[in-house]
Amino acid sequence: MANMYTVYGMNASGNCYKVKLALEWLGIAYKWVEIDILNSGTRTPEFLAMNPNGKVPTLALGDGNFLPESNAILHYLAEGTPLMPRNRLGRARALQWMFFEQYSHEPYIAVARFITLFLPPDHARRAELPRLRERGGQALRVMETELTRVPYFAGEDYSIADIALFAYTHCADQTGFDLAPYPKLRAWLARVRAQPGFVPMDA
Amino acid sequence: MANMYTVYGMNASGNCYKVKLALEWLGIAYKWVEIDILNSGTRTPEFLAMNPNGKVPTLALGDGNFLPESNAILHYLAEGTPLMPRNRLGRARALQWMFFEQYSHEPYIAVARFITLFLPPDHARRAELPRLRERGGQALRVMETELTRVPYFAGEDYSIADIALFAYTHCADQTGFDLAPYPKLRAWLARVRAQPGFVPMDA
User: Fold this and answer.
1) Residue B65: which of A89, A98, A103 has the nearest Cβ?
2) What is the ipTM of this complex?
3) In CA terms, which of A27, A47, B37, B62 is 20 to 30 Å from B28?
């Protein structure tokens, strides 16, 4: 019997939600350990021994190894499953959109969400919101353009790229992003929600 | 005969340098098309047709397909070569460090370099430098910690993770980062420079 995975994560984090969506889709049993990152839960010596970069999610593989970085975890879990595209170009496209997500999407859309939902209304970081919304809007437009060509980000089939991009896109409208101008994107969100094993984010 | 690759890149960009290092190591012939990103070379209709996200590097595969995102390009080129770790955990580690590079390293060390080298000395963005140097220094410390355990970022062997992290680490000392406190990191930089096909960055 394979070792059981343990996810060290925070339910309100989209990056952690990605791991949950993949495990649920794949029907893999796992334990979830909730880490309170707002109260330095990723800064303890125990946590830093698992992940010296001090971030959730971190996946305990059950054999003594720990894997951080949400999109690296998705790729690891997807190897040999239908969540990984079958051809070389499809695999490259999946990673293209996963790196896009971490560089051109998450730093704007997830950070805007963090500032809006988790910081006090008078916090100085609110000044960042106009720039974050402009850059995040740009990411949504790039996604809409791609979805005029293909139903899913790696091509014809649902993959880990869709999971990575769904995590913070599906709730962007709760923190100041208007999804009305993006009909392809809204149709894609609905296709992701219709996937087997889909669970809502527990925020 | 395989189609010839064309790299749309900028010589002074570390993200583009990654692609060059991989192609040279693999001994794959390619064409290089220099794009002047400082003069909106990635904003032309022709460029946006290749990559709607408007960034270099973008790799033309020679069959009509275009692949953006430096680390997705590295992964694509490495499939089936010794630059890709042979076991599942090694492949996950490579991606772990490549996502670390794009999220926790490049936005600080590469951006500090951009502000220092490419913006006028009185530019308002200089105010960002103290924060960028602090966060970039944190990334260097995480790398030093890992290199006390392993010689390369995916484990025992040189891989695309080392190429991804070398791109902006090797020149960090030119833009205000002190590498003296990181002996393991400096020894790793020397091991990368000793790789077959190594070429310096043409900055």
Assistant:
1) A89
2) 0.97
3) B37
